[in-house]
Amino acid sequence: MDSTMDVTVHHHGAAHSFHVSTSGTLQDLSAAIEADLNIPSENQKLLIAPKPGMQKAPFPPTQLKNILPLDSPKFKITLLGTPAQAIADLHEQAASTKRRQDARAEALAAARRTNKPSRPSRGGIHTLSDSNSNYTFHRLLPLSYLPNPERSLDFLKRLRDDPGIRASMAKHRFSVPLLTEMNPAEHTTSESRTLGLNRNRGETIELRLRTDAYDGYRDYRTIRKTLCHELAHCVFGEHDRDFWNLTAQIEREVDAGDWKSGGHRVSEQEFYNPDDWESAQNGEDIIDERGWTGGEFVLGGLREDDAGRRAGATGSESRREIMARAAEERMKKEKRDDASRS
Q: Is 197 exposed, middle or buried (0-12, 13-18, 19+ CB in 10 A)?
């Protein structure tokens, strides 16, 4: 019988010892690695130092004693490869993501077919008739793949039925086919969190309802102010003076119709995150970059092309450029506020 020798292979910082025959080959060592670490031979790469260097499948039938520099003080074998289960998990994750994206795209297409307006007016605002009952959000869509979608639906209903929101939408003849929630994970970067989006001047409005950790809901006052901002985008796409004037007007109208001032509370359940209101007032969040128009998009998030640009945005600004411009505007506003207080 052939004698055996121990060969140490390093993988992800851990050393693994294999007993192989002295007359064994690289193919035999690869088969032992597959059996012990569940890494298929075709996924293996062996970096043998100092020579012969990188070896990959199909491995040559060369005996180990003729290819391994066993006498060298620098001798080391490093395995590069991914276990079969990890590869299967990645494939399943990619397939699951595609299924969610397809489902959201299908829901949006259905909303477009069901709620197609009879005539557009005032630069893209969808007005169905002269009845006040038409000036509302005609469909509410929570994200079913996130926890507790029924709570999100309650939140969307509360916004739709808010007396101030209803009064302001009737006054400005706002008729929005779809009001949906935004997935925080798809609109959070290391630099900012986006609170809302208005698609195609009132076709769809998305709002960030949940906390970043999905363990609660944000301050209702913050979300309602964000909704006022997005409703103003039904008329004006850019953040110019006309836009801010309309936003302020809508906020005053909504505050005047608040349940504390003669309206009524739709639900006794409070959706409140104590730090939310303070964060928004301190400028840690951005409401949105601008009103988005055109292009294809997925409910709850914007796709990016290979250059890192957001699909559906006008122009060719990258996300980094948009965020930088938003930060610059916030700094200018803070300087003006400081100057007015001094």
A: buried
